Amino acid sequence: MKKTFITLLIIAAGSICQLKAQDVTNTSYQTKSGEKVLRLEFVLPLSKAQAWQYFTNDAKLKLWIAPVAHIDLKTGGALLTNYDKTKSITDKSAIRNDIVNYIENELITLKVNLNGNFTKKARAEDKNLQEVIQFIAIDDSHTKIVSSMIGWGKGADWDKTYAFFDKGNIWTYKELTALFKSK
Where in the sequence is the signal peptide annotated (predicted)? Predict the structure, then answer.
């Protein structure tokens, strides 16, 4: 009886991990000093090393982040993307996020550079906007990803910028988790 109960617990725990692998959860909050943190969390049914590849390998990035993508993985490097597959990463419509730092298989910090789709005021004040992406092993075959965007400015322009990334980042990370729905 005890062995059957333990087996059922193990099966149930595995089922929960499988469900969590498909969810993108918004756990955003404000710090004690009033700064916004746009925080999204989800679990991938992959080891940390495998999950890391989906953020640091051009071919895997193109599966979910944008049809045109390139990463120069080094401190001072950049993640370059373009949502228009007919354009290049050097086109003015491309998005460039500089790599502030990284710890292999654990963390990437991107300096988010606002492009012409955002107000001039927000672009002029975006010097602190960053995305910190953490890779946390749950077990050998599940990794929790925590994306925290920090460095938001204040005011109506920044409220619109925050709303854009809130919606856009959820959509983008759902594109990543969708790759594993049938697995």
Answer: 1-21
